């Protein structure tokens, strides 16, 4: 069986597990000697027997706890790193696969956790328990060791056959879960469309179909789990019964087994079969977890984002022989351009030709197909045409935890939106949860501008910053942009003519190139 796990951890797991079961065996040895002296001996118990029994028992308990702690800590650390790696691979295309990303991080990787946290430790622990127990019984009571060897293969043979079927069923279950998750997320995002197009019935029917399929596959997996548990219990009871029967015959009929050998055998045999039973259960769970790993594999094995294309420059930003593609379509080709440390540069052109992608390349969110993007400072302000808010409050969003409440209120007052925010129940401490913010589109733009004005980064990127503003608010924002451009470089994708009136430079996207327009 090939384990998907680093070898260095397997070696450490194996060492701890081997020493643990050796300590348990040694404890059983001294306990058997002690009871033998009490039951069939002269009752003169040596203190050394009690001492060694206690030493090995304490070592066994300690190492068992250590094994559980270390394997759990290692697995959780690896899963956390795996999740961070997946999130770190977010790129410009991620918003088109948001459901896949969410399922990979929050569902499939989480369900894969049991593979590394319990399945792998159980495999290693079981292997050493079987080896040490059979080796010990070979010297103490060979017949019992042979019974263990004969009956043990039935457990792994059964759970391998069941596990293979479980893996297939779990893959179907993961597919159904992804389908339901994607449909539900799309339904939430498009709830208004569903309402206005009167498509509720179709959506309900689709949800019911996916739910029926999901329940069916879930019950199939549970059926195999129940069958597996039942058979494992049966095989375990049968194996222990055979060992007990053989010992009983040796004691009653043949009278050729010592109390020590009988007790020692009956102490280790249940541990032997219990290890197999645990392994059987965990094998089933491990196969389920592997099915979820397969679903998350696209993101887990995705190549890391390349940020080597971004260098440093004395100017605010610069492009050197930069070409930008989305898929196989070339948007910009061989761009050479430098931006001064102050001033407003406007970028115009038809929609869908790469203006927003150009800004994302400066941010490090979209790798050019060729060339180098230079930035003067990694501290970049970004005002996008989309709502990007983490779970926070209005105050925390604007201040970044640096500025006081009064300073935040002052900047909001200057942007003529403090009254609107104060009308909210919690004022500037109103929570923004799951990107839900009780402000209009124009107010959201001004809130983003407030954050930029508060922090004054040396480079500010704006994607259609006045798109949702009324005439009065637009004039207010333009006035602040005039002030802002005197101390920062502003690169703005714009559609409105008023924005062009305050621009220091104007470039239009034409024929995969940026052409400077005369003023």
TrEMBL record:
Every ABC transporter domain range: 317-519
Transmembrane regions: 9-30, 50-70, 119-139, 145-164, 224-245
Positions in coiled-coil regions: none
Top-rank taxon, per record: Bacteria
Main subcellular localisation: membrane
Keyword hit for Transmembrane: yes
Keywords carried by this UniProt record: ATP-binding, Membrane, Nucleotide-binding, Transmembrane, Transmembrane helix
Record's bilayer topology term: Multi-pass membrane protein
Boundaries of every ABC transmembrane type-1 domain copy: 11-288
Compartments, as annotated in UniProt: Cell membrane
InterPro entries to which the protein is assigned, alphabetical: AAA+_ATPase, ABC1_TM_dom, ABC1_TM_sf, ABC_transporter-like_ATP-bd, ABC_transporter-like_CS, P-loop_NTPase, Type_1_exporter
GO molecular function terms noted in the UniProt entry: ATP binding
PANTHER family found in the cross-reference section: ATP-BINDING CASSETTE SUB-FAMILY B (PTHR24221), COMPONENT LINKED WITH THE ASSEMBLY OF CYTOCHROME' TRANSPORT TRANSMEMBRANE ATP-BINDING PROTEIN ABC TRANSPORTER CYDD-RELATED (PTHR24221:SF590)
Biological function: May be involved in multidrug export. Transmembrane domains (TMD) form a pore in the cell membrane and the ATP-binding domain (NBD) is responsible for energy generation.
Protein name in the entry: ATP-binding cassette domain-containing protein
Source organism (scientific name): Corticicoccus populi
């Amino acid at each position: 069986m090939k384990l998907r796990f680093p070898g260095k951890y397997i070696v450490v797991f194996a060492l701890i597990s081997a020493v643990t079961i050796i300590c348990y065996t040694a404890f059983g040895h001294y306990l058997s000697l002690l009871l033998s002296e009490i039951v069939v001996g002269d009752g003169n118990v040596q203190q050394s027997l009690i001492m060694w029994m206690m030493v090995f028992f304490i070592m066994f308990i300690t190492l068992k706890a250590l094994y559980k702690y270390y394997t759990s800590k290692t697995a959780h650390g690896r899963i956390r790193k795996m999740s961070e790696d997946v999130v770190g691979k977010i790129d410009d295309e991620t918003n088109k696969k948001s459901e896949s990303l969410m399922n990979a991080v929050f569902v499939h990787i989480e369900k894969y956790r049991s593979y590394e946290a319990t399945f792998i430790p159980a495999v290693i622990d079981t292997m050493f328990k079987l080896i040490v127990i059979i080796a010990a019984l070979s010297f103490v009571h060979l017949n019992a060791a042979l019974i263990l060897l004969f009956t043990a293969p039935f457990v792994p043979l059964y759970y391998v056959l069941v596990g293979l079927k479980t893996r297939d069923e779990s893959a179907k279950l993961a597919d159904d879960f992804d389908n339901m998750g994607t449909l539900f997320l799309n339904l939430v995002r498009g709830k208004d469309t569903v309402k206005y197009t009167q498509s509720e019935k179709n959506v309900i029917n689709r949800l019911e179909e996916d739910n029926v399929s999901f329940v069916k596959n879930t019950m199939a997996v549970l059926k195999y789990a129940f069958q597996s548990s039942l058979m494992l219990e049966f095989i375990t009871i049968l194996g222990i019964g055979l060992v007990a029967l053989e010992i009983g015959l040796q004691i009653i009929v043949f009278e050729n087994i010592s109390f020590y050998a009988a007790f020692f055998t009956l102490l280790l045999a249940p541990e032997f079969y219990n290890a197999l039973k645990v392994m059987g259960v965990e094998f089933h769970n491990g196969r389920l977890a592997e099915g979820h790993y397969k679903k998350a594999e696209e993101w887990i094995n995705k190549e890391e984002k390349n940020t080597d294309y971004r260098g440093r420059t004395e100017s605010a930003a610069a492009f050197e022989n930069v070409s930008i593609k989305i898929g196989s379509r070339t948007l910009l080709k061989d761009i050479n351009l430098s931006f001064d440390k102050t001033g407003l540069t406007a970028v115009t052109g038809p929609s869908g030709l790469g203006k927003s992608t150009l800004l994302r390349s400066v941010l490090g969110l979209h790798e050019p197909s060729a060339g180098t993007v230079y930035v003067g400072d990694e501290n970049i302000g970004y005002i996008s045409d989309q709502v990007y808010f983490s779970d926070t409050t209005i105050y925390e969003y604007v201040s970044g935890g640096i500025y006081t409440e009064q300073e935040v209120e002052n900047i909001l007052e200057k942007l003529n939106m403090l009254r609107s925010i104060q009308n909210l129940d919690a004022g500037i401490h109103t929570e923004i949860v799951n990107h839900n913010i009780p402000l209009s589109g124009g107010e959201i733009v001004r809130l983003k501008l407030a954050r930029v004005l508060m922090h004054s980064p040396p480079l500010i990127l704006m994607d259609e910053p006045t798109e949702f503003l009324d005439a009065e608010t637009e004039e207010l924002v333009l006035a602040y942009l005039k002030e802002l451009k005197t101390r920062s470089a502003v690169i703005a994708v714009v559609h409105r003519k008023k924005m062009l009136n305050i621009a220091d430079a104007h470039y239009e996207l034409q024929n995969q190139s940026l052409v400077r327009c005369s003023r």
